[in-house]
Design goal:
Blueprint: H1 2-36, H2 46-49, H3 53-78, H4 84-95, H5 97-112, H6 117-151, E1 161-162, E2 171-173, H7 179-192, E3 200-201, H8 203-221, H9 233-238, H10 243-278, H11 283-308, H12 312-342, E4 348-349, H13 352-372, E5 376-378, H14 379-401, H15 410-431, H16 433-450
Antiparallel strand pairs: 1-2, 2-5, 3-4
Helix pairs in contact: 1-3, 3-4, 3-10, 3-11, 4-12, 5-6, 5-10, 5-12, 6-11, 6-12, 6-13, 6-14, 7-8, 7-12, 7-13, 8-12, 10-11, 11-12, 13-15, 14-15
Length: 463
Protein backbone atom coordinates (compact mmCIF):
# COMPACT_ATOMS: atom_id res chain seq x y z
CA UNK A 1 0.00 0.00 0.00
CA UNK A 2 2.88 2.35 0.78
CA UNK A 3 4.37 2.12 -2.72
CA UNK A 4 0.99 2.57 -4.43
CA UNK A 5 0.05 5.51 -2.22
CA UNK A 6 3.36 7.31 -2.74
CA UNK A 7 3.00 6.66 -6.48
CA UNK A 8 -0.51 8.13 -6.52
CA UNK A 9 0.58 11.25 -4.60
CA UNK A 10 3.58 11.67 -6.90
CA UNK A 11 1.37 11.38 -10.00
CA UNK A 12 -1.05 14.01 -8.66
CA UNK A 13 1.82 16.38 -7.84
CA UNK A 14 3.34 15.74 -11.30
CA UNK A 15 0.13 17.02 -12.92
CA UNK A 16 0.66 20.36 -11.18
CA UNK A 17 4.37 20.79 -12.02
CA UNK A 18 3.92 22.31 -15.53
CA UNK A 19 1.66 24.97 -14.03
CA UNK A 20 4.14 25.59 -11.19
CA UNK A 21 6.77 26.33 -13.87
CA UNK A 22 4.48 28.64 -15.85
CA UNK A 23 3.08 30.46 -12.81
CA UNK A 24 6.49 30.70 -11.21
CA UNK A 25 8.11 32.20 -14.32
CA UNK A 26 5.31 34.65 -15.14
CA UNK A 27 3.99 35.67 -11.70
CA UNK A 28 5.80 34.39 -8.61
CA UNK A 29 9.39 35.10 -9.71
CA UNK A 30 8.69 38.63 -11.08
CA UNK A 31 6.86 39.54 -7.86
CA UNK A 32 9.69 38.17 -5.73
CA UNK A 33 12.30 40.09 -7.73
CA UNK A 34 10.23 43.27 -7.40
CA UNK A 35 10.52 42.95 -3.63
CA UNK A 36 14.12 41.76 -3.37
CA UNK A 37 15.66 43.67 -6.28
CA UNK A 38 13.47 46.60 -7.36
CA UNK A 39 14.20 47.69 -10.89
CA UNK A 40 15.94 44.44 -11.87
CA UNK A 41 15.25 43.42 -15.46
CA UNK A 42 13.51 40.11 -15.97
CA UNK A 43 12.00 38.47 -19.03
CA UNK A 44 10.11 35.16 -18.76
CA UNK A 45 11.30 32.45 -21.17
CA UNK A 46 9.90 32.79 -24.69
CA UNK A 47 8.38 29.30 -24.68
CA UNK A 48 6.19 30.38 -21.73
CA UNK A 49 5.20 33.86 -22.91
CA UNK A 50 4.38 32.42 -26.33
CA UNK A 51 2.13 29.71 -24.90
CA UNK A 52 -1.14 29.65 -26.89
CA UNK A 53 -4.48 29.91 -25.12
CA UNK A 54 -5.21 26.21 -25.60
CA UNK A 55 -1.86 25.42 -23.98
CA UNK A 56 -2.66 27.58 -20.94
CA UNK A 57 -6.06 25.90 -20.62
CA UNK A 58 -4.50 22.43 -20.81
CA UNK A 59 -1.67 23.09 -18.32
CA UNK A 60 -3.82 24.94 -15.78
CA UNK A 61 -6.61 22.38 -16.16
CA UNK A 62 -4.25 19.48 -15.42
CA UNK A 63 -3.02 21.35 -12.35
CA UNK A 64 -6.60 21.74 -11.12
CA UNK A 65 -7.13 18.00 -11.64
CA UNK A 66 -4.01 17.05 -9.66
CA UNK A 67 -4.78 19.55 -6.89
CA UNK A 68 -8.33 18.24 -6.58
CA UNK A 69 -7.05 14.75 -5.80
CA UNK A 70 -4.58 16.10 -3.22
CA UNK A 71 -7.39 18.12 -1.66
CA UNK A 72 -9.68 15.09 -1.45
CA UNK A 73 -6.96 12.95 0.14
CA UNK A 74 -6.24 15.69 2.66
CA UNK A 75 -9.91 15.95 3.63
CA UNK A 76 -10.31 12.17 4.01
CA UNK A 77 -7.15 11.93 6.10
CA UNK A 78 -8.34 14.79 8.33
CA UNK A 79 -11.47 12.81 9.24
CA UNK A 80 -9.35 10.84 11.72
CA UNK A 81 -8.81 13.96 13.85
CA UNK A 82 -11.75 16.30 13.22
CA UNK A 83 -15.49 15.81 12.54
CA UNK A 84 -16.09 14.80 8.95
CA UNK A 85 -18.48 17.71 8.37
CA UNK A 86 -15.73 20.16 9.34
CA UNK A 87 -13.16 18.47 7.09
CA UNK A 88 -15.65 18.62 4.22
CA UNK A 89 -16.40 22.28 4.97
CA UNK A 90 -12.69 23.14 4.72
CA UNK A 91 -12.48 21.17 1.48
CA UNK A 92 -15.48 23.04 0.09
CA UNK A 93 -14.05 26.47 0.93
CA UNK A 94 -10.70 25.66 -0.68
CA UNK A 95 -12.33 24.11 -3.75
CA UNK A 96 -14.44 27.19 -4.47
CA UNK A 97 -11.81 29.77 -3.45
CA UNK A 98 -11.27 30.77 -7.12
CA UNK A 99 -14.97 31.58 -7.40
CA UNK A 100 -14.57 33.92 -4.42
CA UNK A 101 -11.55 35.54 -6.10
CA UNK A 102 -13.37 36.17 -9.40
CA UNK A 103 -16.45 37.61 -7.69
CA UNK A 104 -14.32 39.69 -5.34
CA UNK A 105 -12.53 41.24 -8.32
CA UNK A 106 -15.82 42.27 -9.94
CA UNK A 107 -17.20 43.59 -6.63
CA UNK A 108 -14.01 45.61 -5.99
CA UNK A 109 -14.16 47.11 -9.48
CA UNK A 110 -17.82 47.96 -8.94
CA UNK A 111 -16.87 49.97 -5.87
CA UNK A 112 -13.74 51.49 -7.40
CA UNK A 113 -15.64 52.76 -10.43
CA UNK A 114 -18.98 53.39 -8.75
CA UNK A 115 -21.48 55.61 -10.57
CA UNK A 116 -19.73 54.93 -13.90
CA UNK A 117 -20.82 52.52 -16.60
CA UNK A 118 -17.80 50.33 -15.88
CA UNK A 119 -18.73 50.14 -12.19
CA UNK A 120 -22.37 49.32 -12.92
CA UNK A 121 -21.35 46.55 -15.33
CA UNK A 122 -18.87 45.16 -12.78
CA UNK A 123 -21.60 44.99 -10.13
CA UNK A 124 -23.87 43.14 -12.51
CA UNK A 125 -21.05 40.76 -13.45
CA UNK A 126 -20.37 40.02 -9.77
CA UNK A 127 -24.00 38.96 -9.31
CA UNK A 128 -24.14 37.11 -12.64
CA UNK A 129 -20.99 35.12 -11.87
CA UNK A 130 -22.24 34.29 -8.37
CA UNK A 131 -25.70 33.17 -9.48
CA UNK A 132 -24.26 31.21 -12.39
CA UNK A 133 -21.89 29.33 -10.08
CA UNK A 134 -24.68 28.52 -7.63
CA UNK A 135 -27.05 27.25 -10.31
CA UNK A 136 -24.32 25.17 -11.93
CA UNK A 137 -23.57 23.57 -8.58
CA UNK A 138 -27.15 22.29 -8.29
CA UNK A 139 -28.24 21.96 -11.92
CA UNK A 140 -25.12 20.11 -13.06
CA UNK A 141 -23.43 19.19 -9.77
CA UNK A 142 -26.22 17.74 -7.64
CA UNK A 143 -28.11 16.28 -10.60
CA UNK A 144 -25.05 14.96 -12.43
CA UNK A 145 -23.47 13.40 -9.36
CA UNK A 146 -26.75 11.71 -8.42
CA UNK A 147 -27.03 10.18 -11.90
CA UNK A 148 -23.36 9.19 -11.86
CA UNK A 149 -23.81 7.55 -8.45
CA UNK A 150 -26.71 5.41 -9.66
CA UNK A 151 -25.44 4.46 -13.11
CA UNK A 152 -21.68 4.13 -12.57
CA UNK A 153 -20.03 0.72 -12.72
CA UNK A 154 -20.12 -0.92 -9.31
CA UNK A 155 -23.04 1.14 -8.06
CA UNK A 156 -24.76 -2.05 -6.91
CA UNK A 157 -22.11 -2.32 -4.17
CA UNK A 158 -22.77 1.23 -2.97
CA UNK A 159 -25.00 1.09 0.13
CA UNK A 160 -26.38 4.54 -0.67
CA UNK A 161 -27.90 3.37 -3.98
CA UNK A 162 -31.39 1.90 -3.72
CA UNK A 163 -32.88 -0.05 -6.62
CA UNK A 164 -36.65 0.42 -6.79
CA UNK A 165 -39.52 -0.67 -8.96
CA UNK A 166 -40.90 1.93 -11.32
CA UNK A 167 -39.77 4.25 -14.09
CA UNK A 168 -36.46 5.92 -13.16
CA UNK A 169 -37.25 5.25 -9.49
CA UNK A 170 -33.73 4.24 -8.38
CA UNK A 171 -32.43 6.69 -5.80
CA UNK A 172 -29.38 7.83 -3.87
CA UNK A 173 -30.07 7.85 -0.13
CA UNK A 174 -28.25 10.33 2.08
CA UNK A 175 -27.01 10.15 5.65
CA UNK A 176 -29.43 11.78 8.08
CA UNK A 177 -26.47 13.65 9.56
CA UNK A 178 -26.83 16.00 6.58
CA UNK A 179 -29.96 17.44 8.19
CA UNK A 180 -27.97 20.33 9.69
CA UNK A 181 -26.51 21.29 6.32
CA UNK A 182 -29.89 21.10 4.59
CA UNK A 183 -31.67 23.26 7.19
CA UNK A 184 -28.95 25.92 7.21
CA UNK A 185 -29.05 25.97 3.41
CA UNK A 186 -32.84 26.39 3.63
CA UNK A 187 -32.43 29.42 5.92
CA UNK A 188 -29.89 31.00 3.55
CA UNK A 189 -32.19 30.33 0.61
CA UNK A 190 -35.22 31.94 2.24
CA UNK A 191 -33.11 35.01 3.05
CA UNK A 192 -31.85 35.18 -0.55
CA UNK A 193 -35.41 35.82 -1.78
CA UNK A 194 -35.29 39.08 0.19
CA UNK A 195 -31.93 40.33 -1.12
CA UNK A 196 -33.25 42.04 -4.30
CA UNK A 197 -35.97 43.83 -2.32
CA UNK A 198 -33.35 46.03 -0.62
CA UNK A 199 -31.97 47.23 -3.96
CA UNK A 200 -28.61 45.59 -3.44
CA UNK A 201 -26.45 43.39 -1.23
CA UNK A 202 -26.03 45.35 2.02
CA UNK A 203 -24.76 45.04 5.58
CA UNK A 204 -27.90 43.22 6.77
CA UNK A 205 -27.27 40.52 4.18
CA UNK A 206 -23.67 40.28 5.35
CA UNK A 207 -24.57 40.02 9.04
CA UNK A 208 -27.23 37.36 8.52
CA UNK A 209 -25.50 35.21 5.89
CA UNK A 210 -21.96 35.31 7.29
CA UNK A 211 -23.37 34.87 10.81
CA UNK A 212 -25.32 31.84 9.60
CA UNK A 213 -22.17 30.20 8.24
CA UNK A 214 -20.18 30.99 11.40
CA UNK A 215 -22.94 29.37 13.47
CA UNK A 216 -22.88 26.32 11.19
CA UNK A 217 -19.11 25.89 11.58
CA UNK A 218 -19.37 26.34 15.35
CA UNK A 219 -21.91 23.50 15.51
CA UNK A 220 -20.00 21.06 13.29
CA UNK A 221 -16.76 21.72 15.19
CA UNK A 222 -18.47 20.49 18.35
CA UNK A 223 -19.52 17.30 16.65
CA UNK A 224 -17.97 13.90 17.26
CA UNK A 225 -15.09 12.47 15.25
CA UNK A 226 -16.40 9.51 13.26
CA UNK A 227 -14.39 6.34 13.78
CA UNK A 228 -16.47 3.70 12.06
CA UNK A 229 -15.64 4.31 8.40
CA UNK A 230 -12.67 2.48 6.96
CA UNK A 231 -10.56 4.32 4.43
CA UNK A 232 -8.52 2.76 1.65
CA UNK A 233 -5.71 3.89 -0.62
CA UNK A 234 -3.86 7.13 0.05
CA UNK A 235 -6.00 8.30 3.03
CA UNK A 236 -5.58 4.91 4.75
CA UNK A 237 -1.81 5.16 4.31
CA UNK A 238 -1.63 8.73 5.59
CA UNK A 239 -3.86 7.99 8.58
CA UNK A 240 -1.23 5.51 9.81
CA UNK A 241 1.20 8.39 10.45
CA UNK A 242 1.75 9.55 14.05
CA UNK A 243 -0.70 12.32 14.92
CA UNK A 244 1.74 15.25 14.65
CA UNK A 245 3.09 14.06 11.29
CA UNK A 246 -0.44 13.33 10.06
CA UNK A 247 -1.65 16.82 10.92
CA UNK A 248 1.36 18.41 9.20
CA UNK A 249 0.69 16.25 6.13
CA UNK A 250 -2.97 17.29 6.01
CA UNK A 251 -2.04 20.97 6.37
CA UNK A 252 0.57 20.59 3.59
CA UNK A 253 -1.94 18.91 1.27
CA UNK A 254 -4.55 21.59 1.95
CA UNK A 255 -2.03 24.41 1.51
CA UNK A 256 -0.43 23.12 -1.69
CA UNK A 257 -3.69 22.12 -3.36
CA UNK A 258 -5.28 25.41 -2.27
CA UNK A 259 -2.46 27.45 -3.85
CA UNK A 260 -2.61 25.41 -7.06
CA UNK A 261 -6.39 25.72 -7.35
CA UNK A 262 -6.37 29.43 -6.47
CA UNK A 263 -3.67 30.29 -9.01
CA UNK A 264 -4.66 27.91 -11.82
CA UNK A 265 -8.44 28.18 -12.02
CA UNK A 266 -8.56 31.86 -13.02
CA UNK A 267 -6.31 31.43 -16.12
CA UNK A 268 -8.16 28.20 -16.84
CA UNK A 269 -11.50 30.03 -16.75
CA UNK A 270 -10.20 33.05 -18.70
CA UNK A 271 -8.70 30.74 -21.29
CA UNK A 272 -12.04 29.04 -21.77
CA UNK A 273 -13.71 32.47 -22.00
CA UNK A 274 -11.27 33.51 -24.71
CA UNK A 275 -11.79 30.30 -26.66
CA UNK A 276 -15.56 30.77 -26.33
CA UNK A 277 -15.57 34.37 -27.57
CA UNK A 278 -13.45 33.28 -30.52
CA UNK A 279 -16.33 31.10 -31.69
CA UNK A 280 -18.95 33.82 -31.14
CA UNK A 281 -20.31 33.19 -27.63
CA UNK A 282 -21.20 36.53 -25.91
CA UNK A 283 -18.71 37.56 -23.20
CA UNK A 284 -21.44 38.18 -20.58
CA UNK A 285 -22.78 34.67 -21.18
CA UNK A 286 -19.25 33.27 -20.83
CA UNK A 287 -18.70 35.10 -17.52
CA UNK A 288 -21.97 33.85 -16.10
CA UNK A 289 -21.66 30.23 -17.19
CA UNK A 290 -18.29 29.12 -18.57
CA UNK A 291 -16.09 30.86 -15.99
CA UNK A 292 -18.12 29.52 -13.01
CA UNK A 293 -18.14 26.05 -14.59
CA UNK A 294 -14.35 26.17 -14.68
CA UNK A 295 -14.11 27.46 -11.11
CA UNK A 296 -16.46 24.72 -9.88
CA UNK A 297 -14.38 21.99 -11.58
CA UNK A 298 -12.14 21.22 -8.55
CA UNK A 299 -15.20 20.57 -6.43
CA UNK A 300 -16.87 18.33 -9.00
CA UNK A 301 -13.65 16.35 -9.48
CA UNK A 302 -13.37 15.82 -5.72
CA UNK A 303 -16.99 14.68 -5.47
CA UNK A 304 -16.62 12.30 -8.42
CA UNK A 305 -13.59 10.82 -6.69
CA UNK A 306 -15.50 10.32 -3.42
CA UNK A 307 -18.55 8.82 -5.12
CA UNK A 308 -16.37 6.48 -7.17
CA UNK A 309 -15.03 5.14 -3.86
CA UNK A 310 -18.63 4.42 -2.79
CA UNK A 311 -18.47 7.40 -0.40
CA UNK A 312 -21.61 9.00 -1.80
CA UNK A 313 -22.61 10.55 1.53
CA UNK A 314 -19.26 12.37 1.78
CA UNK A 315 -19.63 13.43 -1.85
CA UNK A 316 -23.07 14.94 -1.34
CA UNK A 317 -21.90 16.45 1.93
CA UNK A 318 -19.21 18.27 -0.06
CA UNK A 319 -21.74 19.47 -2.66
CA UNK A 320 -24.19 20.73 -0.03
CA UNK A 321 -21.39 22.34 1.98
CA UNK A 322 -20.15 24.15 -1.13
CA UNK A 323 -23.62 25.40 -1.92
CA UNK A 324 -24.00 26.56 1.69
CA UNK A 325 -20.72 28.49 1.81
CA UNK A 326 -21.33 30.08 -1.60
CA UNK A 327 -24.89 30.99 -0.64
CA UNK A 328 -23.70 32.56 2.63
CA UNK A 329 -20.03 33.60 2.64
CA UNK A 330 -19.83 34.47 -1.05
CA UNK A 331 -22.93 36.67 -1.07
CA UNK A 332 -22.30 38.11 2.39
CA UNK A 333 -18.70 39.17 1.74
CA UNK A 334 -19.37 40.89 -1.60
CA UNK A 335 -20.57 44.02 0.19
CA UNK A 336 -17.31 44.13 2.19
CA UNK A 337 -15.16 43.97 -0.94
CA UNK A 338 -17.39 46.50 -2.70
CA UNK A 339 -17.08 48.92 0.23
CA UNK A 340 -13.29 48.54 0.22
CA UNK A 341 -13.21 49.47 -3.46
CA UNK A 342 -15.60 52.35 -2.80
CA UNK A 343 -13.55 53.66 0.12
CA UNK A 344 -16.58 53.76 2.41
CA UNK A 345 -19.59 51.63 3.23
CA UNK A 346 -22.01 51.08 0.39
CA UNK A 347 -24.47 48.43 -0.80
CA UNK A 348 -23.54 46.51 -3.95
CA UNK A 349 -26.26 47.44 -6.43
CA UNK A 350 -27.42 45.54 -9.50
CA UNK A 351 -30.03 45.93 -12.22
CA UNK A 352 -33.47 44.32 -12.58
CA UNK A 353 -32.09 41.46 -14.68
CA UNK A 354 -29.69 40.45 -11.89
CA UNK A 355 -32.53 40.68 -9.36
CA UNK A 356 -34.30 38.08 -11.49
CA UNK A 357 -31.12 35.97 -11.53
CA UNK A 358 -31.03 35.99 -7.70
CA UNK A 359 -34.71 35.03 -7.46
CA UNK A 360 -34.21 32.21 -9.95
CA UNK A 361 -31.15 30.94 -8.07
CA UNK A 362 -33.05 31.04 -4.77
CA UNK A 363 -36.02 29.26 -6.36
CA UNK A 364 -33.79 26.52 -7.78
CA UNK A 365 -32.16 26.11 -4.36
CA UNK A 366 -35.58 25.86 -2.69
CA UNK A 367 -36.65 23.12 -5.11
CA UNK A 368 -33.37 21.23 -4.58
CA UNK A 369 -33.89 21.37 -0.80
CA UNK A 370 -37.45 20.06 -1.18
CA UNK A 371 -36.01 17.13 -3.12
CA UNK A 372 -33.56 16.29 -0.32
CA UNK A 373 -35.98 16.83 2.56
CA UNK A 374 -36.54 13.05 2.76
CA UNK A 375 -32.78 12.39 2.53
CA UNK A 376 -32.76 10.99 -0.96
CA UNK A 377 -32.70 12.02 -4.60
CA UNK A 378 -34.17 9.76 -7.26
CA UNK A 379 -33.14 9.50 -10.89
CA UNK A 380 -36.42 11.23 -11.84
CA UNK A 381 -35.72 14.15 -9.52
CA UNK A 382 -32.14 14.48 -10.73
CA UNK A 383 -33.34 14.56 -14.34
CA UNK A 384 -35.90 17.28 -13.49
CA UNK A 385 -33.15 19.40 -11.90
CA UNK A 386 -30.87 18.86 -14.88
CA UNK A 387 -33.58 19.47 -17.49
CA UNK A 388 -34.84 22.68 -15.91
CA UNK A 389 -31.29 24.03 -15.59
CA UNK A 390 -30.23 23.18 -19.14
CA UNK A 391 -33.47 24.39 -20.72
CA UNK A 392 -33.32 27.78 -18.95
CA UNK A 393 -29.68 28.35 -19.98
CA UNK A 394 -30.44 27.26 -23.55
CA UNK A 395 -33.51 29.51 -23.87
CA UNK A 396 -31.60 32.46 -22.41
CA UNK A 397 -28.84 31.90 -24.97
CA UNK A 398 -31.47 31.80 -27.73
CA UNK A 399 -32.89 35.13 -26.53
CA UNK A 400 -29.47 36.78 -26.21
CA UNK A 401 -28.40 35.69 -29.68
CA UNK A 402 -31.81 36.36 -31.30
CA UNK A 403 -31.67 32.89 -32.83
CA UNK A 404 -35.45 32.45 -32.61
CA UNK A 405 -38.07 35.07 -31.80
CA UNK A 406 -39.56 34.19 -28.41
CA UNK A 407 -42.53 35.98 -26.78
CA UNK A 408 -40.46 36.57 -23.64
CA UNK A 409 -37.70 38.89 -22.56
CA UNK A 410 -34.70 37.48 -20.70
CA UNK A 411 -36.05 38.90 -17.42
CA UNK A 412 -39.51 37.39 -17.99
CA UNK A 413 -37.86 34.03 -18.69
CA UNK A 414 -36.10 34.21 -15.32
CA UNK A 415 -39.39 34.92 -13.53
CA UNK A 416 -41.13 32.09 -15.40
CA UNK A 417 -38.57 29.50 -14.36
CA UNK A 418 -38.52 30.94 -10.82
CA UNK A 419 -42.27 30.32 -10.64
CA UNK A 420 -41.87 26.75 -11.90
CA UNK A 421 -39.23 25.97 -9.28
CA UNK A 422 -41.28 27.51 -6.45
CA UNK A 423 -44.47 25.64 -7.41
CA UNK A 424 -42.57 22.34 -7.59
CA UNK A 425 -40.86 23.06 -4.26
CA UNK A 426 -44.09 23.92 -2.43
CA UNK A 427 -45.75 20.79 -3.84
CA UNK A 428 -42.94 18.60 -2.53
CA UNK A 429 -42.83 20.32 0.87
CA UNK A 430 -46.58 19.76 1.28
CA UNK A 431 -46.44 16.11 0.22
CA UNK A 432 -43.37 15.53 2.38
CA UNK A 433 -44.46 17.57 5.38
CA UNK A 434 -43.78 14.69 7.77
CA UNK A 435 -40.24 14.35 6.42
CA UNK A 436 -39.83 18.12 6.76
CA UNK A 437 -40.95 17.97 10.38
CA UNK A 438 -38.50 15.17 11.09
CA UNK A 439 -35.70 17.14 9.38
CA UNK A 440 -36.36 20.19 11.56
CA UNK A 441 -36.64 18.15 14.78
CA UNK A 442 -33.45 16.28 14.05
CA UNK A 443 -31.57 19.51 13.33
CA UNK A 444 -32.84 21.06 16.55
CA UNK A 445 -31.60 17.98 18.39
CA UNK A 446 -28.20 18.20 16.71
CA UNK A 447 -27.83 21.86 17.69
CA UNK A 448 -28.91 21.18 21.28
CA UNK A 449 -26.51 18.26 21.54
CA UNK A 450 -23.61 20.31 20.16
CA UNK A 451 -23.97 22.98 22.83
CA UNK A 452 -25.15 20.77 25.68
CA UNK A 453 -22.84 20.59 28.69
CA UNK A 454 -24.04 17.05 29.25
CA UNK A 455 -22.69 14.06 27.41
CA UNK A 456 -26.16 12.58 27.21
CA UNK A 457 -27.63 12.21 23.74
CA UNK A 458 -30.43 14.64 22.99
CA UNK A 459 -33.53 12.78 21.76
CA UNK A 460 -33.88 13.04 18.01
CA UNK A 461 -30.22 13.82 17.31
CA UNK A 462 -29.38 10.35 16.09
CA UNK A 463 -32.76 8.96 15.03
Amino acid sequence: MKRQSIGAISAAVALTIPWVVVWGATTALPNLLAVLAPGAAYEPPAFITGLPTIGTVAISGLSVLGAAFLLAWGAETAEKDVPRAFAIAVLAVLAVAPEYAVDALYAFNAGQFAETQRGIEAGNLAVANMTGANRILIGLGWAGIALFTVFRRGSSADPSVERREGFLADAVTLDHDLSLDIVFLMLATLWAFLVPLNGGIDILDMLFLVGLYVAYIAIVLRGDVETGEEHVGVPAYLQQFPKAKRILTVVALFAYSGVMIFTAVEPFAHGLEELGTQIGIPSFFMIQWIAPLASESPELIVVLYLVNKARSTAGFNALISSKLNQWTLLIGTLVIVYSIGLGRYGALGFDLKQAGEIWLTAAQSLFAISVLVNFEISVREALVLLTLFVSQVFLEFVIIRDIVALPLTSYELLLLFSGIYVVLALSLFISRREALGYLLRRTAGTISHAFSSSDEQVPGADD
